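#onboarding

Welcome to the new folks! Below is a worked example of what a typical request in this channel looks like: someone posts a single protein sequence, and someone else replies with the predicted structure as tokens. Don't worry about understanding the tokens yet, we'll cover that in week two.

Example request:
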Amino acid sequence: MYTILPEERKNAIIQELERTGKVKVVDFAEKFQVSPETIRRDLVILEEKGLLKRVYGGAVKKSYQAGEPPFLHRTTVNQEAKIKIGKAAANLIEDGDTVIIDVGTTMLEFAKAIENKEGITIMTNSLPVCSVLTKALNVKKFSGNVLLLGGQLNPKQQSVGGRLTEKMLEEFHVDKAFISAGGVSIDGGVSDYDLTESAVSQAMIQASKEVILLADYSKIGVDAFCKICPLEKVDVLVCDQPLPKGWENNKKINGINWVTAK
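Example response:
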């Protein structure tokens, strides 16, 4: 039987990081038929070379710690998972709802999936999301109104933010806020990499009756730089994978409706 060489194993880890942004020790131990300790040693070596950042249960891309790459660079990362999450999230909108949509590439796929809804009002601070929704309104994919929040433009992330955006959100009460995140963990809660965008997400949560978090599996177990809210604030979490092992009986997750996107 062919035995994979240590360097081949490390290369496979790096390839997986480039593809999904995260690797899990248990998955790679099973894949290569080695002990978890062997994979952990691989991760230690790769971290010493500056190629990744170890986290509980695995590792994430080094670039995650320095902040997110620009919006356009992220549109093809985990795209299949984001499309599934977007479609599942769109099913949570009901006729007549007032909705806030956060920034991010997952939110873009979510916006593309909204259809056959009557009399909905959507607010967003994402320029790509606003563009998609405007086109959808024009071709009558759904009926209602779209509001673009004002504020300071962030060209890199194609978003609007700042104190003006936060002040505008204080003037509204909405049914559902669909929030994005850079990381989701039991102890760290919901977090992101951008201070301005995190503050706007907090204002969205404050304005909403129900908080719906959209996060692909590469975000689970990751703590990003800026805290947005504890997990207890989240009502629904839409992910492309089931609830992680070890999270089932944690009291911080008990009140969350975990939706696994198919």
